[in-house]
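Appendix B, record 7
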Amino acid sequence: MQTLFNIVVFPGILYILAWTVLLFWFFRKFMAALHKRVGPSFNGPMGTYQTLFDLSKLLTKESITPKGVNPYLFSLMPLLALSIAILPTALIPWTPDITVAKSSYGLLGLVVLIGIEPFILFLTGFGSNNKYSFLGGIRILTQMISMETSFFLAALSPAILFSTLNLNSIIQQSSWLSFAILLPGFVLYFIALLGLLEQPPFNIPDAEQEIVYGFYTEYSGTNYFLLKVSEFSEFMAVFAGAVTLFLGGYKGLFFDGFSFLFAKMLIVAMIMMAIRASTPRITMKQMLMFSWKYLVPLSLVNIAWIMIAKILFFGGM
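Structure tokens (predicted):
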């Protein structure tokens, strides 16, 4: 019964849908405040019903399948994208007692599953029989290859510091000292995540002015809804992963619990939205130069710093 509860309710399907609705509304209100706009305000308290109306509209719209594509594969890709986006949540320790899939190699599984999602989106664009979708898919693949090296190296920081790949052990050993040591790794991890999530200033794969809407171009109705839910589910997984690896997870000031993890996830979301609201999109050339010329070398320097800090403060390698 506990496994069924975890799959269906928390941290399962119902929780993911609730997170999607909340974050979608929160994005609009927070971005509106940053841009000095109003945001949704008429339907429900502070416009909370507007998100529900938008999602229900997507679910009732017609899903159009373009000519020349395999209709089964075209409809399967959004489901596959959603499934892959949800999987990392099973490895996250949401509370001291709730981890759906406990593993001594949780960190490895987390970064691998997060890294797979962009490849699924590439296949989504590739199979749409549209040149704009194809170009968006190619951009995703290029960006993924460029950013994943820095992402993996930054994610290794807590594993090296604490000598474990177990996410629960990482949380239990975290402290203010480890936070200070891991802060450069967190910054690098977060920047690489923006690239993997195709978020500004790295929203190159879905540039409306250049390639219409990238890999999303041919999707509508329920299929588009599933792709957007997979995007917000991936947000949940990567925010929870960042909090678990670098910010102490569910650990709080006076007691431990999910409320602290959720609050930290919202803080990470606000940082991402502040960057989204204040930075213009860069070009593919600039992204490649930034990634290989600066981000990867800094990630290697960060690994050296973690090793030195472990020797100085944690009793050696």
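Remarks on this record: The radius of gyration is 20 Å. The chain is about 70% helix and 0% strand.
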